Amino acid sequence: MGGINVIELEIVADHESASARVAGCIVEQVRREPASVLGLATGGTPERTYELLVEKVRAGHLSFSQATTFNLDEYVGLQPAHPQSYHAYMRSRLFGEADFDSKRTHLPDGTADDLAKAGEQYEALIADAGGIDLQLLGLGANGHIGFNEPGATEDSRTRVVDLTEETIAANARFFEARDDVPRRALTMGIATILEAREIVLIATGESKAEAVERAVRGPVASQMPASFLQQHPNVTFVLDEAAASLLGSRA
Ligand code: GLP
């Protein structure tokens, strides 16, 4: 059984066009409401989107000075200074390159002594900010969103999760050795993500095609965490032709 809402699809030619489209959604949101609360993602896919946003700010066409941000996830045990931490990713690609107020950029604290409490505090911070206006998502080849791996439940909140071997293998390309990839992460939950007022997911490349097809057309199921997005009233998937390639036959 599918969800009640149809996921809106925007299919463009390539990764560059998808990045431009997603950057455009963020620009539009922040121009409309400079004090927007943005949910942000990491991974290889949104890197170009962030470059485009930095270009806009540098050209004087956009300001993030009043925006608040919450990232989806962080590895457990990596210090913010660790080059492969998501803190470092965000600093080098976006926060340190544009006019963000560092008091208003947030990531889960994967180094906290009490990770469960850190998760609860993160949820409280999001609530205090008034909730997320626009949440950007990537997509794992196994259907994960944030680090909500297969098996994640609809009511999940920010918490510690074990990464699957598939995700560890996929993310090993960012580390010197596969053994260096942390095995756990602190991630927003499915319920946290579904509370965002608007969601934009970007997926590009053939390796995402199967997950895209199952997320959009498959049953809503824990085994495909992105399928829970079918239950949200305002979701857009921005896809390149390769990532959308399995949708055609059943469209
Ligand atoms: C990572 C992140 C996700 C990301 C996904 C896809 O592990 N935790 O937020 O969306 O996996 O990554 P990529 O864009 O590199 O394919």
- What is the number of strand segments? 10
| Name given to the CATH architecture | 3-Layer(aba) Sandwich
The largest sheet has its strands arranged as 1-10-9-6-2-3-5
Distance between the ends = 16 Å
Helix content: 25-40%
Q: Which CATH class?
A: Alpha Beta
Largest sheet: 7 strands, parallel
Question: What ligand molecules are bound, each kind once?
Answer: 2-amino-2-deoxy-6-O-phosphono-alpha-D-glucopyranose
Provide the β-strand percentage band: 15-25%
Order of helices and strands: EHEHEEHEHEEHEHEHE
Residue windows where pLDDT falls under 50 for at least 5 positions: none
What overall form do the CA principal axes indicate?
globular
CA radius of gyration is: 17 Å
Task: Briefly note the structural class of the backbone.
Answer: alpha/beta
| Total of DSSP H or I helical runs spanning 4+ residues | 7
Mean pLDDT: 96
Integer tally of domains: 1
CATH-derived topology:
Rossmann fold
Structure characterization notes:
The chain has 251 residues and is α/β, with parallel strands linked by helices. The chain has one domain (8-244): Rossmann fold, CATH 3.40.50. It contains seven helices and ten strands. It has helices at residues 15-32, 47-58, 86-95, 115-128, 165-171, 190-194, 209-217, and strands at 8-12, 37-40, 68-71, 73-75, 105-106, 134-137, 159-162, 184-187, 198-203, 235-240. Strands 1-10-9-6-2-3-5 form a seven-stranded parallel β-sheet, covered by helices on one side. It has a three-stranded antiparallel β-sheet with strand order 4-8-7. The radius of gyration is 17 Å and the shape is globular. The two termini are 16 Å apart. Bound molecules: 2-amino-2-deoxy-6-O-phosphono-alpha-D-glucopyranose (GLP). 2-amino-2-deoxy-6-O-phosphono-alpha-D-glucopyranose is lined by residues 41-45, 72-73, 138-140, 146-147, 167, 171. InterPro entries: Glc/Gal-6P_isomerase, Glucosamine6P_isomerase, Glucosamine6P_isomerase_CS, NagB/RpiA_transferase-like. Pathway: Amino-sugar metabolism; N-acetylneuraminate degradation; D-fructose 6-phosphate from N-acetylneuraminate: step 5/5. This is Glucosamine-6-phosphate deaminase. GO terms for molecular function: glucosamine-6-phosphate deaminase activity; identical protein binding. Its EC number is 3.5.99.6.
